[in-house]
Design brief:
- The protein has 298 residues and is an alpha/beta fold.
- It has helices at residues 2-6, 12-18, 36-44, 58-67, 85-88, 91-94, 108-112, 138-144, 147-158, 163-175, 182-192, 206-216, 219-233, 247-262, 278-283, and strands spanning 26-29, 51-55, 75-79, 97-103, 239-244, 266-268, 291-297.
- Helix 4 (58-67) links the parallel strand 2 and strand 3 (75-79).
- Helix 9 (147-158) crosses helix 12 (206-216) and helix 10 (163-175) packs across helix 11 (182-192).
């Protein structure tokens, strides 16, 4: 439980305000993670508000079940991809939803669990699966993706300027069986970088790891499928709040919401993107890149 309490959700007050959390309202959290947002939603919706929560990571579901135990009579948790919400919740339940939250960030628990392979701080298999019931791993992506496609993937999802030389090095290492672990990959990328470019604030492998993780978990595809479904299925006046951490995610979210606004399916709750306060960023450095967009279904 101590580790659970160390998890600090981002922009919580703003999210509660924009989702208009209150007594007897029902909410849908499609990315439970550490349960930080979920517990605050439940506290703000006493005495009868119900939280329906989903996560693709079964370990996250189990952690949240413990953390939210005091609200178990008002909580329903489901394991699955967030785009599968309509397979878990009936149309009758969806009609009662007042607000939906999507937090696109990677869980700190996933990053800090060595054998999950999300971080090059630990030596681990090249896994990176958020949903460990899926077959595709990071090593599969590196092995099965042609070099040119791999370079494009790292460039687009990681905004990595040295993507072509990194992809070439990856394929060369795979061919001789020299790439098996997270540290193998991180060391390879470090050596591939020009020596002058290695002296930067972030490790040279950071952007490539991000890109590979996003591909393994189809993160962009999940965002697009989920938002399209929510806009069609959610009842009138339901609010949808999306918290993202990368410009590529935010552009996709903005594009989908802008198109829905043109179709008169939603309205902006705020005309501009919201960001955390300076105080929150000082308190929680993970908040620095966060962006929040909120719409209301018409």
């Amino acid at each position: 439980m101590e580790n659970l309490l160390q998890h600090e959700p981002i922009m919580t007050e703003q999210i509660l305000r924009d989702l208009e959390c209150g007594p007897e309202k029902n909410f849908l959290d499609l990315t439970l993670g550490g349960g930080g947002h979920a517990i605050e939603i439940l506290r703000s919706s006493v005495p009868k508000g119900v939280l329906f929560g989903m996560d693709r990571d079964l370990a996250a579901i189990e952690r949240c079940r413990k953390r939210l135990e005091e609200f178990q009579d008002r909580t329903h948790l489901y394991h699955g991809e967030m785009s599968e919400f309509d397979q878990r919740l009936s149309p009758q339940v969806m009609e009662t939803i007042a607000g939906v939250l999507i937090d696109c960030g990677v869980s700190s628990f996933q990053l800090d669990t060595a054998d999950r392979g999300f971080s090059f701080r630990f030596e681990a298999p090249l896994d990176m699966r958020m949903n460990q019931s899926q077959e595709l791993t990071a090593l599969d992506v590196l092995s099965q993706t042609p070099e040119d496609e791999l370079a494009n993937l790292i460039y687009i999802y990681g905004q990595e300027r040295y993507s072509r030389r990194i992809a070439k090095s990856i394929k060369r290492s795979l061919a001789i069986g020299a790439l098996q672990t997270t540290t193998d990959l991180a060391d390879l990328i470090y050596e591939t970088y020009p020596s002058a470019a290695r002296r930067q604030k972030i490790h040279p492998a950071t952007r490539s790891f991000q890109a590979i993780r996003m591909r393994v978990n189809d993160e962009m595809g999940q965002i697009e499928k989920t938002l399209q479904k929510l806009i069609q299925i959610c009842p009138q006046a339901c609010r949808i709040a999306v918290l993202s951490f990368h410009s590529i995610e935010d552009r996709l979210i903005k594009t989908i919401f802008r198109k829905a606004k043109q179709d008169r399916s939603v309205r902006w709750v705020h005309p501009k993107v919201l960001v955390p306060s300076r105080e929150e960023c000082k308190r929680n450095p993970r908040a620095r890149s966060a962006k929040l967009r909120v719409v209301e279904v018409l």
